[in-house]
Specification:
Blueprint (H helix, E strand, L loop, with lengths): L1 E7 L14 H5 L5 E8 L2 H11 L8 E5 L6 H13 L12 E5 L4 E6 L14 H7 L1 E5 L13 E8 L2 E8 L1 H18 L3
Parallel strand pairs: 3-6, 3-7, 5-6
Antiparallel strand pairs: 1-2, 2-8, 4-5, 7-8
Helix pairs in contact: 2-3, 2-5
Length: about 190
């Protein structure tokens, strides 16, 4: 695991002329992103990273899962959902678009936006309502651009040799939880 913290600034932290914002906006902690990269060897470790996220979630949390087909988005989501709901079947929501699960303290909705015809169709899925009372795991968030609420944990999965590279990009909303999540994952991975 490699942890990189720094001054990656989301687009909202740029001035109108495109330069990095100065003053109060630049001092805003939401403008500083933390990026943590995990190198996992297989599906079991991908699911384990999802399971390690589970205890750190609560109503209102939003997780974007990005990556090419077969990168492990559903595998990570399955690990997270099963950690909260037990050993249940967690299919890919590719055809249903949304699958909702009842965890003990909140609902988890797993959305796949790959098949949306146009970005504004995301509102028909009830994303705003889902995030008000539960957790949303959203695959293919790039398909709808700026139509999704902000403050998400961005998870990007890609292949890396025989394994996967999983980058978590966080802002202030996640920064305090991410170190605990990383430590928990490393401890659990030793048991595999």
């Amino acid at each position: 695991m490699r942890i990189v913290q720094g001054v990656r600034r989301p687009p909202k932290c740029r001035a109108s002329d495109g330069s990095l914002a100065r003053g109060a906006v630049a001092a805003d902690m939401d403008c500083i992103m933390t990026v943590i990269t995990f190198l996992v060897r297989n599906d079991a470790e991908t699911a384990l990273l999802g399971a390690s996220m589970a205890p750190h979630l609560g109503p209102g949390d939003l997780i974007f899962l990005a990556g090419s087909l077969g990168a492990g988005k559903t595998t990570l989501a399955r690990g997270l959902i099963q950690a909260l709901c037990g050993p249940i079947d967690v299919p890919s929501p590719t055809y249903t678009l949304v699958e909702t699960y009842n965890a003990p303290d909140f609902d988890i909705s797993h959305l796949d936006l790959y098949r949306l015809a146009k970005p504004e169709d995301v509102w028909e899925l009830g994303v705003e309502e889902i995030v008000e009372t539960g957790v949303a795991l959203i695959e293919w968030p790039e398909r709808v651009g700026d139509f999704l609420p902000g403050g998400a944990l961005e998870v990007r999965l890609s292949t890396d040799g025989d394994g996967r590279r999983i980058e978590l990009k966080t802002n202030a909303n996640w920064r305090n939880r991410i170190d605990r999540l990383a430590a928990e994952f490393e401890n659990r991975r030793k048991g595999l």
